[in-house]
Amino acid sequence: MILDDLVAATRIRLARRQQHQSLTELKRIVAHQPPTTKSDFLTTLKQPGLQVIAEVKKASPSKGTIVADFPYMAIAQAYEQAGVDAISVLTEPDYFNGHLRYLKTISQQVSVPTLRKDFTIDPYMIYEAKANGASIILLIVAILTDQQLRTFRQLAEDLGMQAIVEAYTAEEVTRALQSGAKIIGINNRNLKNFQVDFTNSLKLRAMVPDSIPVIAESGIQTQQDVEKLAAAGFNAVLIGETLMRSKHKRELITAFRGI
Ligand SMILES: O=P(O)(O)OC[C@@H](O)[C@@H](O)c1c[nH]c2ccccc12
Questions:
Q1: Structural contact between residues 203 and 19, judged by C-beta atoms closer than 8 angstroms
Q2: Ligand 1 center to 33 CA (angstroms)
Q3: What is the three-class DSSP state of 204?
Q4: Which residue minimizes the CA distance to atom 18 of ligand 1?
Q5: ipTM of the predicted structure?
Q6: What letter would DSSP give residue 103?
Q7: What pLDDT was estimated at residue 186?
Q8: Which pLDDT belongs to residue 2?
Q9: Inter-axis angle of helices 23-31 and 123-131, nearest 10
Q10: Which residues form the signal peptide (predicted)?
Q11: Angle at CA 229, nearest 5°, toward 200 and 214?
Q12: What's residue 88's pLDDT?
């Protein structure tokens, strides 16, 4: 199962990074960071209308290389100029061709909050996210225990970040809510086989009370898709591939934001 492979690969890389830089050292870097100047993502999400989160992603396990040419900084700047509310940056190198460096550079040069898109399995990765400029981390319910969901989110909040707690099934939405999640992401892509079912988020939306912002993730392609999600009461959409492939990123984002 691909998700198991992803987590195993993440664990191996993590062990290697920890040998180069201890958690103590990382904590020291974080403690000396200047306070963030970025807007508060949770406040943005609670604003009326549909917010757009655009993703910087070179490749994916299901699609392989998405874009041959990957000027990640120019892409992030195009997103920002088009008025996106946050930018998601893949940092997973083996399956998504991501890198922490992308997160760091983009976070330094855009004023919107950035999300470290990765398979968070250890507090070390949360400090790393912070050290590299992220305002938001991802916690995937399918790969974490109830206790990890709670303590990892708490750690992110203690460091001045927020956590998107990502669910794919009704059971996972329940676990996300029980863990005290303040932001929930409902994925349309089954991370166990990478199949996309666009109606998944529509079906599960009603499980989340209105007080908690919900983000629809993955497989969002058209204006009609975004209209359906807005009508279903989603606070935000997270779009990767469609925007990465588009030659008219600004126009597309402007259209989505106007919904
Ligand atoms: O490129 P898409 O289909 O628009 O999907 C974006 C995003 O939802 C997807 O990249 C994603 C959702 N959950 C994840 C967890 C890890 C890595 C990636 C993801």
A1: no
A2: 29
A3: helix
A4: 117
A5: 0.98
A6: H
A7: 98
A8: 87
A9: 40
A10: none
A11: 75
A12: 99
Is residue 1's pLDDT more than 80?
A: no
Q: How far is the CA of 97 from the centre of ligand 1 (A)?
A: 13
Atom of ligand 1 nearest to the CA of 219: 3
This model's pTM is above 0.95: yes
Q: Whose CA is nearest to atom 8 of ligand 1?
A: 218
pLDDT tens digits, one per residue of 211-244: 999 999 999 999 999 999 999 999 999 999 999 9
Non-local CB neighbours of 185 within 8 Å, separated by 6+ positions: 138, 164, 165, 166, 167, 214, 215, 216, 217, 238
* CATH number of this structure's domain 1-32+40-254: 3.20.20.70
Pocket of ligand 1 (CB under 6 A): 55, 57, 117, 166, 187, 189, 217-220, 238-242
CB atoms within 10 A of CB 210: 8
Closest CA to 111 of 88, 80, 137, 136: 80
Output the six-digit token pair for 68.
């041959």
Angle at 216 between CA 87 and CA 253, to 5 degrees: 50
> Mind listing the pLDDT tens digit for each residue in 183-214?
999 999 998 888 999 899 999 999 999 999 99
Tokens 């790393």 label which residue? 128
Q: In terms of Cα–Cα distance, which of 225, 217, 143 is closest to 187?
A: 217
Residue 166 CA: which ligand 1 atom is closest? 13
Give the Å distances, CA to CA, from 214 to 185, 218, 233, 245: 6, 13, 8, 25
E strands, the chain, in order: 51-56, 59-60, 64-65, 86-90, 114-117, 136-140, 162-167, 184-187, 214-217, 236-239
Q: Pairing between strand 214-217 and 184-187?
A: parallel
